[in-house]
Amino acid sequence: MNLTAPSTSNYNVPNALSAARLVLAIVVCVLIELRCFFPALICFVIAASTDFLDGWWARKYNQITKLGRILDPFVDKTIICGAMIALVGIPESGIVAWMAILVTCRELLVTSLRGLVEGSGGDFSAKQLGKWKMAAQCAAIVTVLLCLMQGSPPAGWIWARWLSIWAAVILTVLSGLEYVMLVVRSNTPTP
User: Fold this and answer.
1) 164 falls within a domain
2) Residue 162 belongs to some domain of the structure
3) Residue 127 backbone zone (phi > 0: left; psi -120 to 50: alpha; other: beta)
4) Alpha carbon distance 63, 11 (integer Å)
5) Span 118-133, pLDDT tens digits
6) Which of 132, 149, 160, 185 would suit a FRET pair with 122, their CA atoms being 20 to 30 Å apart?
7) Are 24 and 46 in contact (CB under 8 A)?
8) With 0-12 CB in 10 A as exposed, 13-18 as middle and 19+ as buried, what is 3?
9) What angle do CA 79, 181, 113 make, to 5 degrees?
10) What CATH number is attached to the domain comprising 110?
């Protein structure tokens, strides 16, 4: 079997990894709601860290599919938005409703813009600020879960939680604005 030949099948390793990450995202939300913070942390870290793996595999072995181009970012958004929404229900998390709403709205907006640009034949690849945003969001969720696991975390952990949440919120807004400005500047025609 030639692993470098283009794959047209949706039944491949990257799509299987994305599907497994989707299941883990749902498990994370359930575990947070049940206040099982350590298992939620483990599942979140596995789901977030394998995001790199499916993209790497798809590029290395030429297994990029239309389903994968939709499924991978959808799962990324499900992991982040789901965890943040679940954490809103935990008052000690430090994440409040408007933060989760802001993150979710940004993700919906960027997904809509991606559909508009790519539907018109343009390129809507991830930008560096968007990658930093994802890293900051993951760091914030991990920090929040670590604090929740401690019950009464020391002041240093509380500061780390606060800083990581605000870094994630600020980068979320900035990266969303970057994508909006790219679309506005490109004068992408609407279908």
Assistant:
1) yes
2) yes
3) beta
4) 10
5) 788 877 777 899 889 9
6) 132
7) yes
8) exposed
9) 45
10) 1.20.120.1760
* Contacts of 15 by beta carbon, 8 Å cutoff, 6+ apart: 54, 65, 67, 68, 71
Tell me the two tokens of residue 108: 């919906």
CA angle 183, 84, 164 (to 5 degrees): 85
Which of 109, 82, 86 minimizes the C-alpha distance to 172? 109
Tell me, yes or no, if the pTM score tops 0.85. yes
Q: Which domain holds residue 146?
A: 13-186
> 39-48 b/e with 16+ CB inside 10 Å = b?
ebbbbbbebb
Distance from C-alpha of 150 to C-alpha of 165, rounded to nearest angstrom:
18
Q: Residue 67 corresponds to which amino acid?
A: L
In a domain, 174, yes or no: yes
- How many contiguous H segments (helices) and E segments (strands) does the chain have? 6, 0
How far apart are alpha carbons 175 and 19 in whole angstroms? Answer: 26
Paired tokens of 105: 């709205």
Residue 52 in any domain: the answer is: yes
Two structure tokens written together for 146: 């670590």
Residue type, 116: L
- Can you tell me which residue has the tokens 């595999």? 57
